[in-house]
Amino acid sequence: MKKLLYLILFFSPVSIISQYVDEPNCTSVYLIRHAEKDRTNKEERNPHLNDKGIERTFKWKSFFKNIKFDKFYSTNYHRTIETIQPISNGEDIVIYSPSNIDYDGFLKLNKGKVVLVVGHSNTIPTFANNLLGSRVYNNIEDDNNSNLYVINICDDNKPINSLYIVE
Question: Which residues contact 122 (CB under 8 A, 6 or more apart)?
Answer without folding.
Answer: 139, 140
